[in-house]
Give the backbone structure.
Amino acid sequence: MSGTGKAIDMEKALLDPSSVFASPEEVAERDDLSAEQRIEILRRWSYDAAEDAVALEEGMPDGNSDLQHRVLIALDRLTGGLDVEMVASGKHHGLRREATEKK
């Protein structure tokens, strides 16, 4: 997928990826962003999805249980393989930066 012709607001994309992109797959397919930009956006989306999963687990409605899985698949494609052993400690289990380094 190519870019849409309008510039991406990177600050907004990094703060709230779902407000800029329709899906993690869209981020992975953008050719108007560098691989590093796409990986960073997806890393942040992964953290947001982990927070949503924790909220869902704690009984809060409106969680998207497969979003984190979709983000991880997109990251895996971009990086040539995620090191899923490199998760942060804590309830959210966010990916450490080293887990998303391109191989």
